[in-house]
Amino acid sequence: MRELFVVTHPEATHHVEGRVGGWFDSHLTGRGQRHAHQVAEALDTRIDPGAALFTSDLRRTQQTADAIASRLGVTPRALFELREKSYGEGEGQPDPWFRERFVPPPARGERMSHDEGLVGAETKAEWVRRVYAGMDIVMADPAHQKVIVTHAGSATFVIAHWIGVPLSALDFVSFRLDPGSITHLREDDYFHNRTVIALNKIGHIVG
Are 76 and 36 in contact (CB under 8 A)? Predict the structure, then answer.
């Protein structure tokens, strides 16, 4: 049996300041730090010795991974590929600035290579290919349990990779994931089906 536990980082400074995240290197708030330790405590009851821990290389995710690593006694491996989507010139900007310039994807037509109107931003296709490349690295690790600390947006494609959604079918795929959530994924040893056991669990977050 193989299991993945996908963690979204808790509250970060860009959340409370009303700024765009993306590659903007915000850090966890005091509340976010407390929640990171609550995530670690929740995982401690489910993770066996020998698990692997992967994280986005941005500060807010690495802080979350550090809390988990301290609790589980593992060493996190940081991957650039697990970062959130890049919003180019929009990163770190106030939300009203962003909304004035952002061009949302069309309801019909080309969505994966859509230009969102922000200089330097990734297209959805570039974002997805990057996260899928990161997941190829994660899945090559022999550990039967893995924890992946990432961002609410990129976590959608971590899950999609796990259940085998091809790149060409991701135009409309999105999972709603809250800060500090845990999603539990499992592959059984008989059918080798990949199951979403629990999505966006946040009952461990208190205060």
Answer: no
